[in-house]
Design goal:
The complex is a heterodimer.
Chain A: H1 2-18, H2 25-35, H3 38-43, H4 46-55, H5 65-71, H6 76-87, E1 91-94, H7 102-106, E2 113-118, E3 127-131, H8 138-153, E4 157-160, H9 166-176, E5 181-184, H10 198-207, E6 209-212, H11 224-235, E7 238-241, H12 249-259, E8 263-266, H13 274-284, E9 288-289, H14 293-300, H15 316-327, E10 331-332, H16 333-340, H17 344-356, E11 360-363, E12 366-369
Parallel strand pairs in A: 3-4, 3-7, 4-5, 5-6, 7-8, 8-9
Antiparallel strand pairs in A: 1-2, 2-6, 10-12, 11-12
Helix pairs in contact in A: 1-6, 8-9, 9-10, 11-12, 15-17, 16-17
Chain B: E1 2-11, E2 14-25, E3 30-34, H1 39-42, H2 44-54, E4 63-69, H3 80-91, E5 103-105, E6 108-109, E7 115-116, H4 121-130, E8 135-139, H5 143-146, E9 153-157, H6 160-168, E10 176-177, H7 200-212, E11 216-219, H8 226-232, H9 242-255, E12 270-271, H10 279-283, E13 284-285, E14 290-291, H11 293-296, E15 301-304, H12 312-316, H13 319-324, E16 326-330, E17 335-339, E18 343-348, H14 367-374, H15 379-383, E19 387-390, H16 396-399, H17 410-427, H18 441-447, H19 452-465, H20 469-486, H21 493-500, H22 506-509
Helix pairs in contact in B: 2-3, 7-17, 7-20, 17-20, 19-21, 20-21
Classes of the chains: A alpha/beta, B alpha/beta.
C-alpha cells in the first residue's frame, strides 16, 4: 500500500514542519507551495532553500537559524508525537493531502498540519461560520441557534469556535437538526475549553469534528485564540457574525474573513448595547446585513428540507398570539398579554398550546417563533 | 420553713409543670438556686432581693435554698421570678402558707417590686391546661394574651405586693375566666395588589401559588416589583382560623415577638429575612432551641429576596421542613419540634448585574458569570418550587394602555384563592387536610387524574419540553390548583396548559 504509506510520511513531515518555531505560517506556506509538500521541504537541499529565502520577500525577516532548523531533518520528535496522537485517537491532516480542506489551503497562512478528532471528511464540505461574543444576550443566543439550525438543517456544515455564548449556540443549533458541525479550537484538540462546554465538546467529537492547529495538550493561552480565528473564516465560504463588541474576537474573524475573500454577514443588533456596536459597524463597513432568516437562507443558497411542511391547525385566538410572537420575538407573557389585551391566564394557556404544536419556543421566559 | 409554688417550664412549644420549692433554715445567710437553672434564673436572686425589700417586706438573713423541679431538666426564663419571690415570703413566714397550691404563677420582677410581662406565656398556659391546671397568676401586661386560653381562670397582678396580698387573702383579686374569644384584630391596612401597575401575569401566578400553597419563584430585573408582589401575598390568603391564630401566636410568644396591644396574631405572618441570615436563624436553633424564621412564617409567607445570595448551606436546610411542614431541632439538652407550614416565595435577578434579557439595558455578564450566579440555588430546592415566573420590564407609558384595563386587586385574587381553599377542604373532608402544594405522588395519582385530551397534551409536552419525573408532579399539582380556582372537578386542558407554562426554565438553570 504505497499510497497509505505516502500519506503517513507526508503527515510525519508536516508535523516536523509545524514544529519549526522560527518560521511563521506565511513562510511555511511559501515553502510548501514552492516545493510541493512537507516531504519535499524536508528533502530540499540547502542551496534551493537559500535561493528561496533570498528571492521571496516573505523571508526578509526570517532568522538565519530557520535555515539550520530546516536542514536538520530529524523526525524523532514528530514520530513520537504521531505515535501519541494515534494512541489517543487524534488524526493528523497534513497540507497537500486529499483530506486537507481546499478552502483553507487557499489562504495566505494555513497551518502545515491540523489535529482532528471526529469525522475528517467534513473538512471539504460546504460550510459557513457562525461566530459572536461570549457575553451574549438572549436575542443573540436565539439568533445564533436559529441560524445554526437553518444552516445545519440544509445540510451545510456550521463552523465555529466552541466558545461560550454565540459560538456554542451556533453549534447547538446545528446539532439540533442533526447537521454536521466543526469546532475550531484555540487549545489542543484534546483540551475542552471552556470546561463548561464538556457536554458539547463530547457531542461534537461524536457527531461532528474538532480541529486545532495547536499541539495536543496545549492550554488556553489568550494569544492563541485570535490566531485560531483565521481558520474559522478560512474553512468557511461565509462568516456570519451574530453579536460582538467593537473590539472583539468576532471582529478579528470578520476582518480576516474579508481579507480571505469570504462573504461577511452581520446580524443587526440593538444600538444601545455594546455587544451590538461591532456587528452594526460591520454593516456600515459593507458586510451583508441579515435582515431576515429567509433572506439569509436565500442569500446563502440554502435549500430548506421539507419545504412546505404541514402547518398545524390553529384556532383564531392561537393565530393572533402566534402572529404577535412573530412580530415581537423575545417578548414575555406580560408584554404579549398587554398587547393582545388578553388576560395573562388565557394568554399563558394559548402560548403553551402553540408551544406544544412546535410553533413557538420559550427560552428563559421569552417566546420565539421556531 | 418550706413552701412550694407552681409554675411551668417551656421546651420549644411544649410546656411542663415546674414546681418551685423553697426552704429556709438557720445558718449562714445565703440564697442558692438548684435544679439546672440558667443564667436568667440565677440572676433572679438580685431582682428578688430588691423587689422584696422595696415592697416593704424583709429579706431575712437565713439560709435559703430554692429547688426547681423536676431537677433533672434544664430551665430558662425570667418568669420564675414571681414564683420564687412568693415562695420566699411564705417560707420566711411573712405571708401565710397558702393552701392554694394549684395556681401557677408567672412574672418577671423589676427592682421596685413591679411585675413585668414574660415570653412564652401562651404556650405555657395551654400546656398546663392540658395537664389539668386551670388557674393562673399572670402579669397585667400579659392579660390579653392569657385570656386567649379558653377556660383558664386568671388573676392579673401589677406588683409583688398585689400578688402577695392575693395569696395571703389580705386583698383578694378577682379571677377572670377566659372565654377564648379573639381580641379584636389590629385592623392593620394590608398592602393591596392594585398598588402594582401591570405585571398581571405575575399576579395570576401569585394567586395560583397562594391558592395551593405552592412555592413561587420570581425571576426578574431589579426594581420590577418582585418584593411588592411577595409582600401582598399574605393579603390574598384566606383569613386564619382561630386554631391557626393560636398556633402562630404560641410561636411568636416563645420568640418574644408579640407586640404590645396585639396579643393575638390575627394576620398571616410575612417574614422576609435578609440573605445574610444563618442556617440556625432560618430553621430555629440555639442551645435551648427557639423557633426560626420558617416557624415564624407558619401559616404565612416566607419571602426570600435575592435567593442566590443566601448561603447554599442555609437554603439546603429548607428542604426537609418544606416537605414535612414541621422542623425538629435537636440539641444536646433537648429535642424540639416547631411547626413551619409556610408558603415559600422567592425572588432573584436573572444574573449578577440583573439585566440579562432586558430589551434596553445591556447586561455585562458572560455566560459563565450567569451560570455561576444561578447555580448557587441548588437543584433540590428548585425542585420543591412548583411555580416559576420570569418577569419582564415593560414601559407601560409607551404602550399607551393607561387605565384601559383595571388592574387586578387583592379582593379579586382572594376570591379565587378562597374558592380553591374550599375545594381543597372538600377533597379532604374526611381528615388529613393538605394543600395541593403538598400532595404526595400517591395523592397526585388519586386526585389529579387526566382525561384523554390532557393525556395527549402531557405526552406532547414530554416529547417537546424535556420534562423530568419531578416536574411532572409539580405540573399536576399546579394544574389541580388551577382547576380548583375555577371550581372544576376535573383538570381540563386549559388548566394543564397553564400549569405547564410555569415549569422551571430548565435552560436557564442548566
Amino acid at each position: 500500500m504505497p499510497e497509505k504509506k505516502d500519506a503517513e510520511r507526508e503527515a510525519l513531515c508536516a508535523l516536523w514542519l509545524s514544529n519549526i518555531k522560527n518560521l511563521n505560517a506565511l513562510q511555511k506556506k511559501v515553502l510548501l507551495e514552492e516545493l510541493g509538500g512537507a516531504c519535499a521541504v524536508r528533502a530540499a537541499d540547502a542551496s534551493r532553500l537559500r535561493s528561496l529565502f533570498e528571492s521571496r520577500p516573505e523571508f526578509k525577516r526570517a532568522p538565519a537559524s530557520a535555515l539550520d532548523a530546516l536542514a536538520d531533518g530529524d523526525l524523532a520528535t514528530a514520530e513520537k508525537m504521531m505515535k501519541e496522537c494515534r494512541r489517543r485517537g487524534i488524526s493528523i491532516v497534513a497540507w497537500g493531502t486529499e483530506e486537507y480542506p481546499k478552502r483553507l489551503a487557499e489562504i495566505s497562512d494555513p497551518p502545515a498540519a491540523l489535529y482532528a478528532i471526529g469525522d475528517v471528511s467534513l473538512l471539504n464540505t460546504p460550510s459557513v461560520a457562525v461566530v459572536g461574543t461570549r457575553r451574549s444576550s438572549p436575542y443573540g443566543r436565539w439568533a445564533a441557534r436559529e441560524i445554526g439550525r437553518r444552516i445545519g438543517g440544509a445540510g451545510v456544515t456550521v463552523v465555529s469556535g466552541m466558545a461560550e455564548g454565540i459560538d456554542s449556540m451556533g453549534h447547538r443549533g446545528c446539532l439540533d437538526k442533526k447537521g454536521s458541525t466543526i469546532a475550531v479550537l484555540g487549545t489542543g484538540v484534546d483540551v475542552c475549553f471552556p470546561r463548561s462546554n464538556r457536554e458539547l465538546y463530547g457531542q461534537i467529537a461524536r457527531e461532528g469534528l474538532l480541529i486545532s492547529e495547536f499541539i495536543p495538550g496545549e492550554q488556553a493561552w489568550a494569544w492563541n485564540f485570535p490566531q485560531r480565528n483565521r481558520l474559522i473564516s478560512g474553512l468557511s465560504s461565509a462568516v456570519i457574525v451574530v453579536e460582538g463588541a467593537l473590539k472583539s474576537g468576532s471582529m478579528i474573524t470578520a476582518n480576516l474573513a474579508a481579507e480571505q475573500g469570504r462573504d461577511v454577514y452581520a446580524v443587526p443588533g440593538n444600538i444601545n448595547q455594546p455587544n451590538s456596536v461591532g456587528v452594526n459597524r460591520l454593516i456600515a463597513d459593507g458586510a451583508c446585513p441579515v435582515y431576515s432568516l429567509e433572506g439569509l437562507e436565500e442569500s446563502l443558497g440554502l435549500v430548506r428540507p421539507g419545504e412546505g411542511r404541514s402547518v398545524p391547525s390553529l384556532s383564531p385566538q392561537e393565530k393572533r398570539v402566534f402572529a404577535l410572537v412573530k412580530q415581537e420575538p423575545g417578548a414575555g407573557c406580560e408584554l404579549l398579554a398587554v398587547k393582545l389585551d388578553e388576560s395573562p391566564l388565557d394568554l399563558r394557556t394559548l402560548l403553551m398550546a402553540i408551544e406544544l404544536k412546535g410553533l413557538v419556543r420559550c427560552e428563559d421566559g421569552r417566546y420565539y417563533v421556531c | 420553713m418550706y413552701a412550694k409554688i407552681l409554675t411551668a417550664s417551656l421546651y420549644g412549644l411544649e410546656a411542663e409543670i415546674s414546681r418551685v420549692e423553697l426552704d429556709s433554715e438557720s445558718g449562714l445567710p445565703g440564697f442558692s438556686v438548684v435544679g439546672l437553672a440558667n443564667q436568667s434564673i440565677k440572676e433572679a436572686k438580685e431582682r428578688i432581693h430588691s423587689a422584696v425589700m422595696n415592697c416593704g417586706y424583709s429579706f431575712p438573713p437565713c439560709r435559703i435554698t430554692v429547688n426547681l423541679m423536676p431537677a433533672g431538666r434544664r430551665k430558662k426564663g425570667s418568669h420564675y421570678d414571681l414564683a420564687i419571690a412568693l415562695g420566699l415570703l411564705m417560707c420566711t413566714g411573712q405571708i401565710p402558707l397558702t393552701p392554694d397550691e394549684d395556681i401557677a404563677c408567672f412574672g418577671e420582677l423589676s427592682l421596685d417590686g413591679g411585675v413585668k410581662g414574660v415570653e412564652g406565656l401562651l404556650p405555657m398556659m395551654t400546656g398546663l391546661m392540658k395537664l389539668g391546671i386551670g388557674r393562673f397568676m399572670v402579669p397585667a401586661e400579659n392579660l390579653a394574651e392569657a385570656t386567649l386560653v379558653k377556660g383558664a381562670e386568671i388573676v392579673s397582678v401589677m406588683s409583688l405586693s398585689e400578688a402577695a396580698d392575693h395569696l395571703s387573702g389580705f386583698r383578694r383579686l378577682p379571677f377572670v375566666t377566659a372565654d377564648g374569644s379573639a381580641a379584636p384584630g389590629g385592623g392593620r391596612e394590608l398592602p393591596d395588589f392594585s398598588d402594582i401597575r401591570g405585571q398581571e401575569a405575575v399576579k395570576r401566578a401569585a394567586q395560583l401559588a397562594a391558592a395551593g400553597r405552592h412555592g413561587l419563584l420570581m425571576i426578574g430585573p431589579p426594581g420590577i416589583g418582585k418584593s411588592m408582589v411577595g409582600k401582598r401575598i399574605p393579603g390574598i390568603m384566606p383569613p386564619m382560623s382561630y386554631e391557626e391564630m393560636l398556633d402562630v401566636t404560641r410561636i411568636y410568644s416563645v420568640a418574644g415577638e408579640l407586640r404590645a396591644g396585639r396579643p393575638l396574631v390575627t394576620e398571616r405572618p410575612y417574614r422576609a429575612p435578609h440573605h445574610s441570615l444563618s442556617a440556625a436563624s432560618l430553621t430555629g436553633g440555639g442551645s435551648r432551641p427557639g423557633p426560626g424564621e420558617i416557624s415564624l412564617a407558619h401559616c404565612g409567607v416566607l419571602f426570600l429576596d435575592e435567593l442566590p445570595e443566601f448561603s447554599a448551606h442555609t437554603l439546603d436546610n429548607l428542604r426537609q421542613p418544606l416537605e414535612d411542614g414541621e422542623v425538629s431541632i435537636i440539641r444536646v439538652s433537648e429535642k424540639c419540634v416547631f411547626p413551619c407550614d409556610f408558603m415559600l416565595v422567592a425572588a432573584m435577578n436573572p444574573c449578577r448585574c440583573g439585566w440579562y434579557g432586558d430589551p434596553v439595558k445591556s447586561c455585562s455578564c458572560s455566560d459563565s458569570d450567569r451560570k455561576r450566579y444561578v447555580s448557587r440555588v441548588s437543584g433540590p430546592l428548585l425542585d420543591r418550587i412548583d411555580i416559576h415566573v420570569v418577569m419582564e420590564r415593560i414601559d407601560y407609558e409607551q404602550l399607551d394602555i393607561g387605565g384601559a384595563a383595571s388592574p387586578l386587586d387583592s379582593a379579586a385574587l382572594r376570591a379565587g384563592v378562597e374558592k380553591a381553599e374550599a375545594a381543597q377542604k372538600e377533597r379532604f373532608r374526611d381528615g388529613g387536610f393538605k394543600h395541593n402544594g403538598r400532595l404526595s405522588p400517591a395523592e397526585i395519582k388519586r386526585y389529579c387524574a387526566l382525561d384523554s385530551e390532557c393525556g395527549e397534551i402531557m405526552k406532547e409536552a414530554y416529547a417537546r419540553l424535556n420534562l423530568s419525573a419531578r416536574s411532572y408532579h409539580r405540573i399536576l399539582r399546579v394544574a389541580r390548583t388551577a382547576a380548583d380556582i375555577e371550581g372544576s372537578g376535573d383538570i381540563r386542558a386549559r388548566h394543564l396548559l397553564e400549569a405547564l407554562s410555569y415549569r422551571m426554565p430548565e435552560k436557564y438553570f442548566s
